[in-house]
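pinned: reference chain
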Amino acid sequence: MAAAALGLGLLILAAPISTHAQAIQDSRCYLMNGGAVESFFISENTPVGSVIGTLSVNGDPSEDDGNISLKLQEKDAALGIAPGTKNLTLLRSLDREERLGPSNIYVNVRCDRRRTTDPSFIIPVSVRVWDVNDNAPVWVGSPYHVRLSELTAVGSRVLPALRATDADQLGPHATIHYSVMPGPNSEYFGFANELDSVLIVKQALDYETLSNFTVTLRAQDQGRPPLHNDTTLYVEVLDADDQNPKFTHDHYTALLPDDAVEGTILNTAPGPIAAVDQDVGINAPLYYTVTGDKREMVVVDRETGRVAAARQLLETSAPVTVVIRATQVDNADRYALATLAVSRRSGALSRRPVRFARRAFAARVPEHAPLGTALLTLHTEPPADRHSPPFQFYVSDRGFLDKFAINSAGEVLLRRPLDYETTPDYYYQVMVTDGIYNDTASINVTVLNVNEWEPRFKYPQYEFRVEAAEGAGGLLAVGRLDVFDGDAGDNVTLTLRGSDASMFYINDAGEMFMRQNALSMLNSSVLHVVATAIDSGSPPRQTSVPVIVHVGARLLARERARDGGVLMFAGALSLGALVLLALLAVALAYIYRNRRSKSSPSAAPNKSNFVVPEKPLPPASALDAASSGSLLSVSAGASTILANSTSSLDLRDPAATHSRNATVSRHSARVPKAKVAPAPPEAPSVALMSDHLQRAAGRSGVAWPSATIPARVKKLSWDDGDQASGEAEVNEATNPAVAEHMNLTVYF
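pinned: its structure tokens
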């Protein structure tokens, strides 16, 4: 009984534990990632009906044998759940700008565990919409109309209300670039900044040339691909008072009748005196007056311009020339001048009419011509300097007097300095009159450019640093030298000079480069050159500035390490070559001595008597003990090898070794052709030269005859590049050992 009670108690205690374990294992309706909210990101142009994502919820929502059910709590939501699935479907269009649909979606999904009475789970779902470039910029208030005076200054703002908007979300899709589309008359306007809608005048307007026109404006966003919108700007140019009046003719003539009285109206030719305002849109009214020294001779009607004879004109018999002035009523600064020549009939018939010798006069004048220079002479027929009374000259433009003058002889004189860069040429119409007759011609003064300015560097000194280890085309970028020339049309050429100039290259744009192969020649981290700018004027002018170039420490250390490795490799290679030469010399000496042994009297005459020495050969120093000569001075490391070789040169005083040379000659007569013959008699200082030394005469550590190289050596300098034309310092070779043997000269 007690045992049964104990078992029942244990069963009761175990029952909650088992239930709790079963609750923990039932993870249906939980999110797989352990979160509490599902989030999705989709584009605003996602089509309706598209699956935007799948819920990561545990359980099977299938309709037949599923263990969970899913449904939305909200009605008329923009999302839906496909039956029997976890897929979220888009039911309405989305729009980040919220014009065609919502910009974000928030819904709650209810998850129920089937076949249980457990409460439902609510899963919040957030759908964020990102922007796409689906809206083109729109011009506000387009098309545009503007009325501008022809006197509107260049740089003035055209239309303050000009702007465009973009409905996309702030960012690249809504950032607008403004531009004037190429086309007819597009050169008159432009935007001050492409990101700003301020439209300005870029070229002066002229009502008389172009009174109205249109231009096309574009607003474009920065989307990919970009969207744009164009509009039209209609421009009406308003006439301004920028033109002087103009007479129908520049010169008039009139004949005074014999029966003329005071107030007689003169008939003028080639027509009535009249002038009009050249500002067509304004067409201001004019009034007429007489000006000049002879203004009391006639009377001019202020309104009509008709001329009547005055009492002073009737009392003179000489021809008279008066100046008629037409002035705008609303602006006294706008006026025009014409001449009227009045004469009696008898005087007109007896006088020869004045004429210019040609229709056009031209002069070419350098811009540095001194003031008062006679540029040209306006030749007339009859000549002006022989006629009495003198001729009068008139010019069409008042600006003529700012630079030039015409004297009574018809000479055009320079009154103000000329400047080719400001005005390269001048053109005027000139009139000559003798009081009765007149004639016109043209004057063209061409200003010749003179090389007045030296090239100018932006800075008095340039200093650069080179850090990059690699460059395109073997060139390392150093920096840029800015140079300018005040003379129009001059081209500037840049060159580099100095001991380090060969290490650099400079192009016409002033970009300076360092040659990469020059790094191996550097002995300093600071290089100095002089940059010279020469212009193309005549005569050419030039300017120079110093340039300092610092080579980076890392770059210099890197190159030195590379050069050290190359030198070590070359040294090892040279040492190996010397060892090979020494071994070859020993072999040749051994063969030579064996040949001598065969030719001695004690040797057998046939080949079977060849005897191998029983003892090793003595050292080369012992074999050459009878010789008083010494080895040549050669480089360290190679001298020891050559000294132990019997094939080294035997050079000594000719007189002291004459007998030995004779002996050597006798022995050498029996040497085969493969050996080297003894030195010729004219060079007794060279007794014997081995074959391998002749072939390797150019290698380090190998001696060569003194007669082949002079005993003078040029003292080298780092400035050799600049001193090639000067006399180099020369030092005599005075080493006694060298002088004793062959005056060996070593070039460093």
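why pinned: The first strand starts at residue 38 and ends at 43. The first helix runs from residue 2 to 25.
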